[in-house]
Amino acid sequence: MTVLETQEHKDLRAAVAALGSRYGRDYLTRVVREGGHPEELWAEAGKLGYLGVNLPEEYGGGGGGITELSIVLEELGAVGSPLLMLVVSPAICGTVISRFGTEEQKRAWLPGLADGTRTMAFGITEPDAGSNSHRITTTARRDGEDWVLTGRKIFVSGVDIADATLIVGRTEDARTGKLKPCLFIVPRDAAGFQRNPVDMELQAAEKQFELVLDDVRLPADALVGDEDAGLLQLFAGLNPERIMTAAFAIGMGRFALARAVAYAKERSVWKEPIGAHQAIAHPLAQAHIALESARLMMQKAAHLYDRGDDVGAGEAANMAKYTAAEACVQAVDQSVHTLGGNGLTREYGLASLITASRVARIAPVSREMILNYVSHQTLGLPKSY
Ligand SMILES: Cc1cc2nc3c(=O)[nH]c(=O)nc-3n(C[C@H](O)[C@H](O)[C@H](O)COP(=O)(O)OP(=O)(O)OC[C@H]3O[C@@H](n4cnc5c(N)ncnc54)[C@H](O)[C@@H]3O)c2cc1C
């Protein structure tokens, strides 16, 4: 198995980093302060083919995989301007449509998702189900040729800027018992589809929403894939989501660490710069090692996914998300600490990452649920719930 990157991957990293650096942290900070979205960066990344690098070439994509898309997100994050919607639009929705969509759905959506002119959000989390997706109750019932969707979702990112949201529901006859999920494309302005922003303590361009689906009527072709295909189709999207969350976390951790290292080389309050004190240097070194190790796990997960090993990718994607989130939280914490009081100022821009880094620990699947997964699926330990 090749875990090291090819020359093309290195070139992609360098090119994306160059694009991101032209925007950087100041750009994103300004956009967030003005309540906008990083439209210019999104559009330019789309034009250069980075947003759809994982999507099939015949539909306007780059013909690569999650390996390449994770490089794009990590490098944008490492220069301080991550695009969270990459996690959902091309990675989840683009993947699910290209693997299970009809020819019409592929032609309708993939070229736009690839060049960034269209965006799709993804909604699975429900207020009364949370981490237990088997309890979701958003229900789809047939009415003639149409589908009618009813239910609620919470914390769904980017619904306001997305042309549509891929909603995970269950069919009416599957309302009880094991989850048989099915996926529907719900246009942003569909009648009965309401969104209410959640007041988050996060400085990010992408907002989270509570969604209410009140008898949302959809045509037959809103269903993506087979209504009986179940979890397989869902995990075709959820594994890329976990790998991309790892990329998001690694990028953020690298960004914070780079700022802290630069500061530790400059700041002197005794004879030497503070970076000469091992109490400062060693935790930064540990953070670097943790981020590099997380990247290795992410590369393994992406490699398994891209070669079609959905089962192997499942375990690796969970472990990559876990390792990357923990490495990110650790890197951000130590970076803020390295800057002393400046770590908490707006000017140095690290303090808001304390909150942001926690996102990777809780979403899209929490640290504890990954530990549960590894306990039960990998180690065969008994279940308490
Ligand atoms: C910024 C942000 C963006 C998001 N974007 C999206 C999105 O675009 N689409 C979407 O669908 N969702 C999104 N989410 C939702 C996210 O996936 C959920 O928050 C996450 O799955 C956890 O669910 P919950 O918040 O209901 O927590 P809960 O399930 O209520 O869990 C609360 C705590 O209990 C722990 N816990 C629960 N069960 C167990 C157990 N069996 N054993 C041990 N511990 C347990 C959890 O680990 C957690 O620490 C987003 C969330 C955030 C914060």
TrEMBL record:
Family as reported in the entry's similarity comment: Belongs to the acyl-CoA dehydrogenase family.
One Pfam family from the record:
Acyl-CoA_dh_N
Q: What is this protein called?
A: Acyl-CoA dehydrogenase
The protein's required cofactors? FAD
Q: Which InterPro entries match?
A: Acyl-CoA_dehydrogenase, Acyl-CoA_Oxase/DH_mid-dom, Acyl-CoA_Oxase/DH_mid-dom_sf, AcylCo_DH-like_C, AcylCo_DH/oxidase_C, AcylCoA_DH/ox_N, AcylCoA_DH/ox_N_sf, AcylCoA_DH/oxidase_NM_dom_sf
Gene Ontology biological process terms in this record:
fatty acid beta-oxidation using acyl-CoA dehydrogenase
Q: Name one GO cellular component term.
A: cytoplasm
Q: Where is the Acyl-CoA oxidase/dehydrogenase middle domain?
A: 121-216
Which segments constitute the Acyl-CoA dehydrogenase/oxidase C-terminal domain?
Answer: 230-372
Output the Gene Ontology terms for molecular function. acyl-CoA dehydrogenase activity; flavin adenine dinucleotide binding
Question: Is-annotated flag, keyword Oxidoreductase?
Answer: yes
Q: Where are the transmembrane segments?
A: none
Q: Which organism is it from?
A: Streptomyces indicus
Alphabetically list the UniProt keywords. FAD, Flavoprotein, Oxidoreductase
Limits of the Acyl-CoA dehydrogenase/oxidase N-terminal domain = 6-116
